[in-house]
Amino acid sequence: MAERSAADPTRRLLWGGFWLGFALSGFFDGILLHQVLQWHHLLSGVAPSDTPQDLRFQILADGLFHVSHYLFALLGLWLIWTRRTAFAVPGVERRFTGWALIGFGSWHVLDAVLSHWLLQIHRIRMDSAYPLFWDLAWLIPFGLAVLALGIHLLRSPPPGPGGTGRRAAVTLA
Predict the structure, then answer these.
(1) Name one Pfam family in it (predicted).
(2) 3-state DSSP call for residue 80?
(3) Are 101 and 142 in contact (CB under 8 A)?
(4) pTM to 2 decimal places
């Protein structure tokens, strides 16, 4: 995924960034949309939540969703921990950040395509007359834009000597 060579010491580290970004994206979605805004539950399009028993089922499904994302996060953290010395490789921070952003954006693209459009288990706003509008309003900034930013970080050259931090400090002074 990150590099073609199995001998690359950063390969597993970059996979760790991807899985951590993927997990954080699921947490972001689940906490904000399921719990805070309460716009939908994981299975809102499949099962009603009219009675307390129905709502308990929805909350259980949301909880299992979060458990799966804890497992993705643990996988990512384990890969990062076991390859933490690879952070010494010049330029790896930028690639790591790029792969973490690709993981974050990938979750939202996967969720939109599978959950919203193919399986139809939920939409971003279940109560909307225009669900596609809300799906796209969520997918574009949190899926496609973040994915594009991650790809941009991987393809663009790193900043020159001194980095952007030094230029910012000089500008502020």
Answers:
(1) DUF2243
(2) helix
(3) no
(4) 0.86
Given a contact cutoff of 8 angstroms between Cβ atoms, the answer to whether 11 and 96 are in contact is no
Burial of residue 155 (number of CB atoms within 10 Å: 0-12, 13-18, 19+): exposed
On whether the CB atoms of residues 78 and 16 are closer than 8 A, the answer is yes
Region for 159 from its dihedrals, namely left if φ exceeds 0, alpha if ψ lies in -120 to 50, beta otherwise = beta
Using an 8 Å Cβ cutoff, are 2 and 83 in contact? no
Tokens at 55, concatenated: 């709502």
pLDDT digits (tens, 9 = 90+) for 1-55: 544 545 788 999 999 999 999 999 999 999 999 999 999 999 999 987 778 888 9
Enter the tokens of residue 61: 């499904």
Which ranges of the chain does DSSP label H, i.e. alpha helix?
A: 11-29, 52-82, 92-110, 131-139, 145-155, 163-172
Identify the H or E element spanning 96.
helix 92-110
